[in-house]
Amino acid sequence: MRPARKPYPIYENVRLTDAGTEGQSIGKYNDLVVFATGGVPGDLVDIQIHKKKKNYAEGKVVAVKEPSAKRSTPFCSHFGVCGGCKWQHMDYQWQLYYKQKQVEDNLKRIGKLELPPISPIIGSEQTEFYRNKLEFTFSSKKWLTAEEMGNKEEITRNGLGFHIPKLFDKVLDIDQCYLQAEPSNSIREALRNFALDQHLTFYDIREHHGLLRNLIIRTTQTGQVMVIVCFGEKDEAGIQKVMQFLQQTFPRISSLMYIVNLKLNDSTSDQEVILFANQDHLLEEMEGLKFRISPKSFYQTNSEQAYVLYKVAREFAGLTGNEVVYDLYTGTGTIANFVAKQAKKVVGIEYVADAIADAKVNSEINGIENTHFFAGDMKDVLTAEFVAAHGQPQVVITDPPRMGMHPSVVQRLLEMNPEKIVYVSCNPSTQARDLELLAGNYAIAKVQPVDMFPQTHHVENVVLLTRIN
């Protein structure tokens, strides 16, 4: 017989004093550092511990004895269960404070870097409904809330929403989400209700069957809407029923598509996207430029703040019209096209071939003729031969994914030895690691944090590096 599990201990009267990089708050219990979800710096709390190591413990706030003055009232009914918007209970100005602190701490502690004064973080005017892309998951075994478990009436286990943190097979059914503006909520609600009424099957993540698998909604500031439904079975009659419903119910959808994904994982980068109605892309606008966004293309998910971020990058680049610029991890060429008028030539490199196709179209539709785009793995494309063929850059702009740059890419930057490097990052810790590798040859001239994701702990940061002659 398996021994009974020991009850999780509760640490009482812990004063939270700081915010962690993963969205927790930090306090001390005796001499042990404790990371807690559900708290705000300044709170006096009780914490139920679920993980304990020699030097730290992790847990969840189960009681707030004295609330912090930094607290605010969460506006979403799903707060605390849904994995998003973890800082919704913290006043926005304090969110900005801790994001700025996160940037400074990472650059100093991880990178051990000499820094100029860090510019005050640029906050987002919109703190709700700011995302232009959301992906929802259908599940035949949705997460039951405490209220639902206490309800004796039979309830459906089919749901459409977001994954519960650290539980790949549990999905929280979402009623109202404050991340994306209408018609996002209306489309999700209508499709879920239609599927329930029509007795369509929701996907079973463990058993890998069910018709409805994922729903992706993208929007633009110009009012366009893209909807992609991912199906887990090749049921043509069911697929047609769903797609016709969406087309008839939401005529404003400008790009209606679907994917049949029979794989064991949700990744669709290698799947065919089938156009059902209207156009196969969206068009976003920024400073008079048009940007084509295809279903698989990356585009910054906060459009308004993306414009702020790109203006910072352009200002840091300080272009005069005579420079060859390399834009690494160019995506759909947004930054490359955004700075092209101030450069002699811009060379963009990106792993996703579909994104590069969009980047080329973006240059074409904007009448930009001095950009050149190439698809492939950065560490394989950016070789000495490539640089010799396409020109020695005076300025490099790099905007890598969260994992940062591959060491061979950092080494290539050192060998190219541009006058300036503008490093745009969505992860200050990996940015600090890469900057430390560049520190012998480059000095940090400017640092500008930008908040792209209000109500979360995530922060973007732009660093200007100048060559040490």
Describe the overall structure:
- Helix content is 25%, strand content 30%.
- It has 469 residues and is an alpha/beta fold.
- It folds into 3 domains: 1-71, OB fold (Dihydrolipoamide Acetyltransferase, E2P), CATH 2.40.50.140; 97-126 and 302-467, Rossmann fold; 133-286, Beta Barrel (OB fold (Dihydrolipoamide Acetyltransferase, E2P)), CATH 2.40.50.
- The strands form 4 sheets. Strands 8-7-6-9-10-11-12 form a 7-stranded mixed β-sheet. A 7-stranded mixed β-sheet has the order 17-16-15-18-19-21-20, sandwiched between helices.
- Helix 1 (92-110) runs parallel beside helix 11.
- 42% of the residues are buried.
- The mean pLDDT is 94.
Keywords:
469 residues, alpha/beta, OB fold (Dihydrolipoamide Acetyltransferase, E2P), Rossmann fold, 3 domains, seven-stranded mixed sheet, 21 strands, 30% strand
Query: What structural class results from the helix and strand content?
Result: alpha/beta
Quaternary structure classification: single chain
End-to-end Cα distance: 71 Å
Shape: globular
Short description:
This protein is of the alpha/beta class and 469 residues long.
List strands and helices in order, with pairings.
Elements: E1 10-19, E2 25-29, E3 32-37, E4 44-52, E5 56-66, H1 92-110, E6 133-139, H2 146-150, E7 159-164, E8 167-173, H3 184-197, E9 212-219, E10 225-231, H4 236-249, E11 255-260, E12 274-278, E13 282-286, E14 289-293, H5 303-317, E15 324-328, H6 334-339, E16 345-350, H7 353-365, E17 371-375, H8 378-381, H9 384-390, E18 395-398, H10 407-416, E19 420-425, H11 428-438, E20 442-450, E21 460-467
Parallel strand pairs: 3-5, 10-11, 15-16, 15-18, 16-17, 18-19
Antiparallel strand pairs: 1-2, 1-4, 2-3, 4-5, 6-7, 6-9, 7-8, 9-10, 11-12, 13-14, 19-21, 20-21
Helix pairs in contact: 1-11
